[in-house]
Amino acid sequence: DKGIQIPSPCVGVCQINASTKYCLGCWRSLKEVAHWSRYSNDEKETLMTELTERQDVLDPINEGSQDVLGD
Predict the structure, then answer these.
(1) How far is it, in rounded angstroms, from Cα 43 to Cα 38?
(2) Whether pLDDT at 62 is above 60
């Protein structure tokens, strides 16, 4: 698992949607955020694909949503 590391998908919008339990910025769960640095590049690549699919499915839920934990 050497070579170039896959960077975090974090975009600095760190708010968890109360309905989906995913970050509004990067679409990861809290567990995925916490474990990112421990994932292999293969695991990161798999998750990056899942994040794209997750966003495609869930984006309408988050548009204009004020349903955010911590607010």
Answers:
(1) 9
(2) no
